[in-house]
Amino acid sequence: MGIDDNIRNKAQDVGGQAKEKVGDTTGNEDLRDEGQQDQGSAKAKDAVENAKEKANEAVNKIKGAMKRD
């Protein structure tokens, strides 16, 4: 995962937390729900990026093993 992706995902997560808290405090259910959605989206993006990273590591490991043979 690139550092830019990490920063964007973290910003989306933190922004979502803020929206959720403001929505809770003001009784604005739509804002609260939007904040929860932002947090979920950020976590999903993190999971996808982590899966891509693991897949790339596995491919590189296989390539390395094939070169040794």
Key words describing this protein structure:
69 residues; 93% helix; 2 helices; 0% strand; rod-shaped; mainly alpha
If you had to describe this structure to a student in words, what would you say it looks like?
- By secondary structure, the chain is mainly alpha-helical.
- The chain has one domain (3-68).
- Helices cover 93% and strands 0% of the residues.
- The chain has helices spanning 3-26, 29-68.
- Helix 1 (3-26) runs antiparallel to helix 2.
- The radius of gyration is 18 Å and the shape is rod-shaped.
- The model has no long low-confidence stretch (mean pLDDT 94).
Beta-strand segment tally: 0
If you average the pLDDT, what whole number results? 94
Low-confidence stretches: none
Principal-axis shape equals rod-shaped
